[in-house]
Amino acid sequence: xxxxxxxxxxxxxxxxxxxxxxxxxxxxxxxxxxxxxxxxxxxxxxxxxxxxxxxxxxxxxxxxxxxxxxxxxxxxxxxxxxxxxxxxxxxxxxxxxxxxxxxxxxxxxxxxxxxxxxxxxxxxxxxxxxxxxxxxxxxxxxxxxxxxxxx
Length: 151
Hints:
The chain is mainly α and 151 residues long. The protein has one domain. Helix content is 83%, strand content 0%. The protein is built from eight helices and no strands. Helix 2 packs parallel to helix 5. InterPro entries: DUF6114. Keywords: Membrane, Transmembrane, Transmembrane helix.
């Protein structure tokens, strides 16, 4: 317990963020959330007009809002990544019809790529080691082999 706390303080905020990011489909969730946000920002109709039009107009705001929500859920609840990613790709494809051709293709592509990245992500089976630690191990192994051959 104490060594874990000491390791966390030794890593600093950047190392802590890297460790957090490594345990979840970070890029997939981020791209899905950005895709939903981009589509929401490209909507031209005001909410008053959308409510007057009905469900078809409301879907233009509902689908990208759900995309952004699913992207955040991928970041903060990675255990359900398969469900979130499949739902995210379906919502992304649905924005083709409801939201300015999926936010002029940009939001649609961000959502589909992010959902595919999240679907294909697998948690690490082995603990991560940094580049410096791997180099130190390789040098130590090389030094041991060199000592073994000279002796």
